[in-house]
Specification:
The chain is built from 2 helices and 8 strands. The chain is elongated, with a radius of gyration of 22 Å. The chain starts with a helix and ends in an 8-residue tail after the last helix.
Length: 158
């Protein structure tokens, strides 16, 4: 009788330890803590570069963007805040989102797409507008050259 009780207690302890680790590692494939900065290009224009931050540390505005646009040799910086309308965690560090800029002077159309930061040193982003045109994407090689020419001291992200 005592041996069965000891075996039962050991089983419960081992099971609870394994279940706790499994549950914490895979809570609906969600990401409990993330903050990633991505160097981006706006509207597939290699002259409009940006630094996009996607984080759960700022729950009110988890998607923030600062753009840098060289006009006539002068850099114009503009901040944008995005309201997340829908977010689906496809898998760990792969999110599908739909959002809208809340302070865009050109309009507040919805944009949607994926943010993949499974490789944190090479995150991928592809957000398109309602017409299907790329709105925010990873910075291109030409965009990197423009970045180094106009704002070499500003780190845009990965």
């Amino acid at each position: 009788m005592k041996i069965k009780n000891v075996h039962g207690i050991i089983f419960l302890v081992v099971f609870s330890l394994l279940a706790t680790q499994t549950w914490s590692a895979n809570i609906l494939n969600s990401d409990s803590d993330y903050s990633i900065k991505i160097a981006v290009t706006i509207n597939q224009d290699d002259y409009i570069m940006g630094k996009l931050e996607y984080s759960n540390h700022a729950p009110q505005y988890p998607l923030q963007l600062v753009t840098f646009n060289p006009i006539g040799g002068v850099i114009h910086a503009e901040p944008y805040l995005f309201e997340i309308l829908e977010k689906t965690v496809v898998s760990k560090n792969l999110h599908r989102i739909k959002c809208r800029s809340i302070n865009d002077k050109y309009g507040s159309a919805e944009i949607s797409g994926t943010i993949d930061f499974s490789n944190e040193l090479k995150p991928k982003i592809h957000l398109v507008n309602e017409g299907g045109h790329a709105y925010i994407s990873n910075i291109s090689e030409k965009g990197k050259e423009t970045h180094m020419k106009y704002i070499p001291n500003v780190w845009l992200g990965y």
